[in-house]
Amino acid sequence: MRSDESGAISIVSLVCIVLGLVLVVVMIIASSIYSSEQKYKNQSDQLVASAVNIAKQQQLATDTNQFAQDAKQPLVTYVGPEAFGTVTLKYPKTWSAYIVESSSNQQPVDGYFEPGFVPDVSNSANIFALRLEIVGQPYDQAVKSFSGQVLKGTVSVVPYSLPKVPSVIGVEVKGTIIGSTTSGIMIILPLRNSTLEVFTEGSQYQSDFTSLILPNLSFSP
Question: Considering the entire predicted model, what is its pTM?
């Protein structure tokens, strides 16, 4: 009888030990799974937070850029002397202009445009968002003045016509245009007995130059 009781107790003890071990293993596995889930959740939360932050920054940049573009409208119009082709140029209202008109055929129009205020035009170190010149120099000579730079590879010259004056063919000069040590864009067009030059110095305002200035520039040939 005692032998049976002893055997039964041993079996019960063994079962309890096994169940205890199984319980411990299950708890360890459960703890490991929970830890992994928490780590994944934390990483996911961080990724979501990072994505949200990036999206907010991108939206802020988009809104800021859109506000800056909207602030430029409506464009301000400058109309030049009738005797020199009635050049009509439109520029952002957030820009200031300093324009000298002269009865002299040498340079009847000399204009400087810059966001905010126009810096000292006599300082050759200053560059401008937009320049407008009507010069007495013949068109062919104005274009030829870039021949040396073309050979050096510092500028490129291609045919160009204004969207509003497609019948007049001139050139577009890209590179280190005259009077600038930075890359700019200049449009040179024949204007009766004179030459029309409109250009931007540097790269900062080239987008405004190509999207706002040139599409709205016109004159009477």
Answer: 0.73
